[in-house]
Amino acid sequence: LVEENDTMNFSAYEGTGISEGELIDLAETMPMFADRRVILVSDSGFFEKGAAELSAYIKEMEADTVFVFCESSVKKTSSMYKTFKAKGACVEFTTPDDAVLGRWIAGRLKSGGKRMDARTMQIFTDMCAGSMEIMSTEIDKLISYCADSDVISEDDLKSVGTVQTQNHIFDMIDAMTSGDKNRAARLYFDLLDLKEPMMRILFLIARE
Description:
Strand order of the largest sheet: 1-2-3
Number of strands: 3
Number of helices: 11
Shape: elongated
Low-confidence stretches: none
Radius of gyration: 25 Å
Largest sheet: 3 strands, parallel
Helix content: 40-55%
Strand content: 5-15%
Distance between the termini: 43 Å
């Protein structure tokens, strides 16, 4: 919406207690050597408690100012929500639960002519630390690797899956707390092979 590092036309506010009047005054200021002014507001509470003055202003505001609100909690009956839905756009971003992830993984595998059972899928999800970005890459690798089979097994995961270092760290800490010295040492050296910084390993051990 604005050029990078354009501090004249980009403003950011965060937290409750933001003045509606201040936002309106800023929105009324013409952009400087740019097509638009952008105002980012985070966790203001306006979409819960309401903001009648600001809501009324946004309904009539000029197109050269853009408001972007990022809110952790929203009441869809609030005047601000209704204003944004009518004037602009409201988009909800939620973290997918295991059921949603499972359907997404199954759909990606099906498009590649593959499938995996529930246990293998759980292991796969854990290996990817819940990251859909990592899962997408790993699924592509698995589909290519299992060209001659329509079922992806646990052994296939072990053969080509990239075990995330975070899993290794917590597995190592579990081994330490249970007194399994050999397993803890083996996982530690695995982490060094994966180029995990030693200070990060030490920090996580100390934190636990």
